[in-house]
Amino acid sequence: MPPVSVAPTNTSVNSVNKGANKKSVTEVIVPVSTWRYKVIGLIFGGIFLGLVVRATYLQVIDRDYLQSQGNARYLRVQNEPPTRGVIRDRNGQPLAISTPVDSIWMNPSKILEQQKTYSYKKLGQLLGKSPNDILDLAERKKSREFVYLKRHLAPQDAKKVLALNVPGINSVREYKRYYPAAQVTGHVVGFTNIDNEGQEGLELVFNKQLKGRSGRTQVLRDRVGHVVEHVEQLSRVQHGEDVTVSIDARIQYLAHRHLEAAVKKHKANTASLVALNAKTGEVLAMVSMPDFNPNDRSTLKSRQFKNRSITDSFEPGSTMKPFTVAMALEAGVIAPQTIVDTEQGSLFIGGSRITDTKKLGKVTVNEVIKKSSNVGSAKIAMMMKPRDLYDTYSELGFGKKNKLTLKGEQRGILANRKFWRPIEHATMSYGYGLSVNTLQLARSYLALANDGVLLPVSLHPVDAPPKGERVFSKQTVAQVSKMLELAVSDTGTAPKARVDQYRVGGKTGTAHKVIDGKYQDDAYMSVFAGYAPLSDPELVLVVMIDDPRGVDYYGGLVAAPVFSDVMAGALRYMQVPPDNIDNKFNYQEKPVELMIARPTVVAADAQGGH
To answer: Which of 9, 87, 166, 568 has the fewest CB atoms within 10 Å, counting from its CB?
Structure first.
């Protein structure tokens, strides 16, 4: 076949095929692409619309949900601790103050999250802990968000910790109690615990007034716990009130120094001292030994922070004799010059023996106090009923707690018997068979220093003398005071109690200690109680030294010198004018003579009928 007839046919066929192919491509591809775009567009459009709807719902309709979720993660309520009030002495001297400190805390979950990537070595060094200690604590407390790592760091030390920028480590401001006088006022002021709650002494007594109330502030923290914004103050912090007490820090320091020296010199076990304002009953000083430093309680033992002026009771010994004599003077059965036969220093009562340290023979009532005769005191007491002695002691506050609010005070022992054995009647007259604490004994001497009126004692400053109760007449007290002045004369039991340029009255007490229910031959309580200046008393002072182990043990040799040193300094601090510039002994005993119409010699059988 000729080639011309074939070519057109092929060309025609190819053209037709190409056209058919183009048509098929157009018919297949274009419709499929449009469908896909539409589906994808609808899907994305739906998603976008859903997001818009959801966002609108959360932002407008249910916005509290998002807010609560954010708050749960970053909004916190932070306590603002109050500053504890200052305790001041009567002259405004601070006895207890609060200083700002910082405590380091952690979020355990944050710490555990980083334990594989972060070293806690530097943090541990600053806090005195090993890295393992920190991680172990975080593991134990991982369910909590706030755990203390170190309490009460100095602010400069806390800054070093925060400078490490450890995630999950933060600080909180707190206050630590500081006691400027340390050991000097430790027993009376007391101390607080790490949470600033009063535990002992004045800190405990006035805790409610001192501690205040925490404030609450809502704060916003970042992811590592740092405060970035203070949102709202929920309640204002109420700082503690300052408290002023009757203590005179100058007298307290003086008493502490001399009592501490006496304890060391005489190798004593314990000791206590109380000083009272004779006209108001205010407690000016209260010291106990052994002492302690409330600023450092790392090695503290409970026996050290006992305020022995109120917690320890003892038999007061011969310091009770002035009250026995005052009672008899008040009853009119004796006079200062009445003669008492002391039976050469020995007297048997109901099979028991009473002795004096010296054979005094026949002496006046004045000399019974001056020479401290047990036999003489017993005979005077037994001229009256046992109940009379009990009632007098009870009126003086023995066997009762003082309303001083300090915790731990013992009431002592004053037996209220229906029937008294004669020996009990006799021994109670010179301070055996009853027990008192140092504060009780000091308060009882207020009745002698204040013209026979017994005042209440107080830890608060007193503007005017409080109302007291009369126990003895003014005339009786004047007579007893002269006897107590004789007791500190050169021939009395306590010449070491005298104070330069002041007239002083006081009485020694030396009592055998009771251990396991038995009196010990070689263990004593050495006591001195007195007041000055005698012409117009301003200060009552009692010193008790327990079990002196040196050469001396008598109250006149152990306790009386402490009384003299403290009284001398205190009177000058108080600017009390001297009443004996020439140091002349003003009272001279008159010749023995009958003062009342009664037998001048108290017979040995005077206890008949009792």
So the answer is: 9
